[in-house]
Amino acid sequence: MSERSAKVLLLPPNADLDALSSIYGISLLEKDAKLFYTSFSPKAKKLFEDIKDRFNILKSLEGLENIHIFTVDYSSIDFVFGLLKKEKIKKITLFDHHIRHIEKEPLVEAYIDETLGACTTLIVEHLIKKDVSILKEDASILLCGIYDDTNYFSIKDISPRDFEVASYLIKMGGDIEFVNKYVKSYISLKDLIHVEEYLKSLEILNINGKKIGFIVLDTTQESVIENLRDVKELENLDAYFIIMSSSINTYVAARSKTIDVERILSKLGGGGHTLASGLKLNFVSSKKLKSIILELLKEENPKITLKDIMTKHPLTLKKDMSVEEAFYTLSNFKISKAPVLDENEHVIGAITKKILAKALDISKDSKVQELLVSIPLLKENDFIWEAEKVFLENPLAPMIGVLDKEGKLVGIITKSDLIRHITEDEERNRAAKTHFRTEEHSQPLQSSEKCLEHTISTKHINIPSYMIDIIIDIKNFTPKGEKLYLVGGVVRDIILNRPSYDIDFVFEGDIDLLEQSLKSHGIKTHRFLGFNSVHFKYKGFKIEISSTRREYYEMAGSYPVVSKASLKEDLFRRDFTINTLLLSLDEEDFGTVIDYFGALNDIKNKIIRVLHPLSFIEDPVRILRAIRFEAKLNFKLSKDTKRLLEEALQKNMLKYAPKGRIFNELKIALQEKEFENIFENYKKYGIIES
Q1: Tens digit of pLDDT for each residue in 102-119?
Q2: Which of 133, 222, 560, 626 is the most exposed place for a label (fewest CB within 10 A)?
């Protein structure tokens, strides 16, 4: 290679241990490459001083042409073009594990894996693939990057591959004592005094139910962030932002437990990880930057209250119910606990099925009010963190009662509701990051129609345009403020790319108001009063819209007893997991698929699975439906489902099913193009003779 051309290992500004370890790993492969650096974090600076003799170091980039740049672990490549004119660069090879927001750049060859906790992991995998020899000293240096960026494998954003690579490096002779020397940080008495001063400027704000901390400092000392890393006052926050400024530069370090801080700071040119991110700006005051971040937080983290996550329309019990009646009520609806009301419909506590079962052995005639468990009460407009706090203070509470402004019960919050919300929040963050990353020109979505079409395209779901039009129309017919979902077989068929001409919707509102709205738009409906649903034809499709309900069967094969319920309870009454999917039509998450029961996994694995063991006993017509879906979709019954179906057939359960419903199911089977396979399955299971 000539004097005027070179391979350059280019460290990003303020390079941390992961960046230094990563670039060291590349030096093992590109032995003729030279290192150029600008600045280090305190830990990386300490390690670099001890290993710099292992590098060929460039003091300047001047005079070089036709440069092949190798760089790592930075969320933007703009710093490269700040050091070198583009025409001097032949190629940029980039290794990273951060989320990328860069335009297509023909110079860049990128190796990016956002699932990894450390960039060094990616580098070592590359070295192993290239069969590069790693000596024990090399292994120790590489381990520093992995252990530091994963905080000793304690952060959330790590992969099993991080563990595997660390294990491999230890097998190669990597020394954990060497790692501890550079990775572990010990706070001095002087720094401890500084921490106390820093915390005096801590401001905690409630932003849409999230506790957000801000520390604004007139210093840019690199040790500040490290010294504040494990401070309890910050650990208890949803997120915190440390803003440090000098006369020219302003730095932000963000850490979080529940908010995607990388997505927020990326809008200002920063980057990093979902839960740990950074930003540097010039000539922007701390005060101004704080106000900008506050506005971004409000946009990014919409106000979510208990009303948004509670289980609506909970089953309630009366205080004067007998233990026996209460137990069988919960059993019939497959519910483990319920709030208890007095004669004025006020919450006075809750009861669990477990307590009732024990009481049955003692006295069936005892009253529910004698066995009550007290429960905390909150208002529907309270923030989610208040429910978290209540459960921490009352770990044995079976639920929280949620009241409206009149003090009437409108819902309940269980620990499962909170866990589900946190999980869904994470899924939304992941989905949003995927969208941001894959769209070349991300524009705000101006309407539900555009949003649905966008979601369908990014999920690779092929819905005919005429079906989209119908979905949008039905949404517009629904009373404002009511959440509407596409539900069941139509969602399943969309995912399977199968045609579907029956479109079912479910919503959580008043079926009477919905019917009135439909009629006001000139739609002739057919109402099934006992089932809280309306049927009608629209643009050649059969449409059914149901209000969420729970149901139980008084005897095998009978029509169900129905009452108002939560969305999840409504799904639990359905026949098979593959028919429990929801597609949200709400403005905020239009087009999001919601899966409570593992339906997506069952569809992927081509499995038909009942939701509970009594499914075929309660409704024997499901036997025929299971067999039809098995042939129609070319799926298989799960092991347990097949056993339960065969046991139901041995008990001759079909004789208990209403003849009209059996006839209707057979009529549907005859209309399927796979009807020959369906009837072969009838023979296989002995339903009809061969």
Answers
A1: 546 788 888 888 889 899
A2: 133
